[in-house]
Write a structure and sequence with these properties.
Layout (H helix, E strand, L loop, with lengths): L13 H12 L2 H13 L3 H29 L3 H9 L4 H33 L2 H22 L4 H19 L1 H28 L5 H9 L9 H15 L5 H5 L9 H30 L3 H5 L3 H14 L4 H33 L4 H21 L1 H29 L1 H9 L8 H5 L4 H19 L17 H17 L1 H7 L8
Helix pairs in contact: 1-8, 1-12, 1-15, 2-10, 2-12, 3-4, 3-10, 3-12, 4-5, 5-7, 5-15, 5-16, 5-17, 5-21, 6-14, 7-8, 7-15, 7-16, 8-12, 8-15, 9-12, 14-15, 15-16, 16-17, 17-20, 17-21
Length: 497
């Protein structure tokens, strides 16, 4: 088997690996999506199903990714080639590219957060005290929604360059060091916010709503599907990024324990965010449910900003919240950029050259989403749903190689947590996938009666199944045609011993 390079190409400690994989998993999906989904899906029942989904969706996929990275010491394209043969290199490359395409628009969100941090430090909340949501809505639309969003583009470019600067310093000096700072910061800042929020009159009503369980909710398919979607998008399982980080893991790293730690840590971050956002909204908003259902952008940049402006100590609360959101978003963007960088390194690129190439790609492709919010919405739908298909690829690859064989060779020998069923359930993942993915595609079709197959212009048909299939298909065809050249250039792909 190809041996891992020492020094900067390996995590310096287990804590460094854990912080980094948590950084990949903990992102905006925890801080602004989870509280909104809890409010929209009846609170506690949704949360309990989320916990179940983590065990039967996220853990097996994280194990599969971790095995592929640690076993082959190669990123997505190279690992699929090594484990399954030359003809599978394009499948691994497609998995990586879906993650990269998602990163191209995800980094736009990081730019938005940076802009709002700058606004907060320059007295914006004082203006909001007079202007209220009319002002926050106007500022948001002028900044990010009305095309061309030139200022949003500039913040987007700055965000890409920050991530690239960290990636260029390598694993130990850049990725690991940054995540060791950012991830503890996320948890500490959310904990401080939680203490302050619970002092607000009426805040406990938010907790009551969040933890209320109605047994009848467990008979509602939409809540189950929403919970499984949240688990998939929040944990990062099946995105291909755990795979890349485990290329740098130690030989004796415990795959099962790390998968469990990552999913548990991700859920803790989500719960903390929920216990901050819901009580704050219930305490301060006249119609809390309407605020929670206003969409991620409406909740964060319009409503929460307004609530912070009208709260005692709101400046400090706003700073803590947006710094936590910045840290969570940046740690996820780093993982997406590293996914592209490592795949190119497997083809013989040096890290500096690979980083420059991937940075240029992010800016070139992501600029469209930064400048036009309609394109952003399309990319969010297409590649967000596409990530579910990446998980399917990992499950099929694991089944093809041998689920039992992977357990005996790669999980059991170095695992103190021998919960075999959490791994072998990956054999049933295609069924889970069909239900969740099928629900999303069917739902998207109902939004466009008679036009579900259309895809252009993207802004008009942002969420159609036609748009999804066309964009996934174009990417797949290009990579399939390049498969021979890719397989040949994966020069470091040694056969397994």
């Amino acid at each position: 088997m190809a041996e891992i390079k020492q020094g900067g190409d390996q995590f310096a400690s287990r804590w460094g690996l854990i912080a980094t994989v948590l950084g990949m998993a903990v992102g905006t999906g925890n801080i602004w999506r989870f509280p909104r989904e809890v409010a929209s899906n009846n609170g506690g029942s949704f949360i309990l199903i989320c916990f179940l989904a983590l065990f039967i969706w996220a853990v097996p996929l994280i194990c599969a990714e971790s095995i592929f990275g640690k076993k082959t010491r190669m990123a997505n394209a190279g690992a699929f080639k090594v484990l399954l043969g030359d003809n599978w290199a394009w499948v691994g490359a497609w998995c990586a590219m879906v993650c990269i395409m998602l990163g191209c628009y995800y980094v736009v969100v990081l730019g938005w957060v940076m802009k709002y941090l700058a606004l907060i430090f320059t007295g914006f909340l004082t203006q909001v005290q007079a202007g209220g949501t009319d002002l926050t809505t106007e500022v948001w639309k002028n900044f990010a929604v009305t095309p061309p969003a030139t200022e949003a583009w500039m913040w987007f470019v700055a965000a890409v360059l920050i991530a690239a600067a960290i990636i260029s310093r390598g694993v130990q000096g850049g990725i690991e060091k940054a995540n060791k700072i950012m991830i503890p910061s996320v948890f500490i800042l959310l904990a401080i916010l939680l203490v302050r929020v619970l002092m607000l009159p009426g805040a406990w009503k938010g907790l009551e709503y969040m933890y209320h369980v109605d047994i009848l909710d467990f008979a509602k398919p939409n809540i189950w599907l929403a919970a499984f979607t949240q688990a998939a998008w929040s944990s990062g399982a099946g995105w291909g990024m755990f795979h890349v980080y485990f290329v740098y893991a130690a030989k004796d790293e415990d795959i099962m324990l790390n998968a469990f730690t990552a999913t548990f840590g991700d859920m803790v971050a989500a719960m903390l965010a929920g216990m901050v956002v819901l009580p704050a909204v219930f305490a301060l908003a006249p119609d809390p449910i309407a605020v929670m259902k206003s969409g991620a952008n409406g909740l964060t940049f319009i409503n929460l900003t307004n609530l912070f402006a009208h709260t005692t100590g709101g400046f400090v609360m706003a700073v803590l919240f947006f710094v936590a959101l910045f840290s969570a978003a940046l740690s996820s963007v780093i993982a997406m950029v590293e996914t592209g960088t490592r795949n190119l390194m497997d083809m013989g690129f040096s890290r500096p050259k690979a980083t420059i190439f991937v940075t240029a790609f992010f800016i070139a492709v992501g600029s469209w989403s930064a400048l036009d919010n309609g394109v952003f919405e399309n990319q969010d739908m297409v590649w967000g749903v596409g990530l579910l298909m990446v998980g399917l690829c990992y499950s099929i690859a694991s089944i093809k190689y041998g689920v039992e064989k992977l357990w005996k060779e790669d999980i059991a020998p170095c695992s103190d947590m021998k919960v075999k069923w959490m791994w072998t359930i990956i054999k049933f993942f295609p069924i889970e996938f069909a239900l969740v993915w099928g629900w999303w595609v069917y739902q998207a079709a109902t939004w466009y009666p008679g036009e579900w197959y259309k895809f252009w212009p993207l802004q008009k048909y942002a969420y159609t199944p036609g748009s999804m299939v066309v964009e996934w298909g174009i990417l797949a065809v290009i990579l399939f045609l390049l498969n021979g050249a890719m397989a040949k250039n994966l020069v470091h792909a040694n056969k397994l011993d």
